[in-house]
């Protein structure tokens, strides 16, 4: 993080990794890094995130049992296809859905934190003194 902060203050151009590599090593290395990112890094990261989505979305449905791998792959494919379709149809709706999902995450986090803080302020700190 400190390295990127220093690079950001030294190199006043936008573009992140691409710009930093272009300034340091030239346009050929920057182009190579860009293509590696587009062909290998981003698809791999998207696959991992999508598989995690498939597992998390199906976990409540298969609660006592393990989730079949084919079901996870199917949920992953449906979720990824839905996101791609939504992004290609309307950027405005995509932004609205992102806002709704962000608000729902914040509500879920507040639902966990607020009662915990309430119990903490009431003096119920037994759980804090337990050790493994």
Number of strands: 0
Helix percent band: over 70%
Stretches where pLDDT falls below 50 for ≥5 residues?
none
How many helical elements?
6
Largest sheet: none
Whole-number mean pLDDT? 89
What fraction strand? under 5%
Q: What is the straight-line distance between the termini?
A: 33 Å
Shape label = extended
Membrane topology: Multi-pass membrane protein
Organism: Xenotaenia resolanae
Subcellular location: Membrane
Protein name: Amino acid transporter
Quick gist of this model?
With 132 residues, this protein is mostly helical.
What's the SSE blueprint?
Elements: H1 2-10, H2 17-25, H3 27-58, H4 69-89, H5 91-122, H6 126-129
Describe this structure in words.
Keywords: Membrane, Transmembrane, Transmembrane helix. It is found in: Membrane. With about 130 residues, this protein is mostly helical. Helix content is about 80%, strand content about 0%. It contains 6 helices and no strands. The chain has helices at about 1-10, 15-25, 25-60, 70-90, 90-120, 125-130. Helix 2 (about 15-25) packs antiparallel against helix 3 (about 25-60) and helix 3 crosses helix 4 (about 70-90). The chain starts with a helix and ends with a helix. The mean pLDDT is about 90.
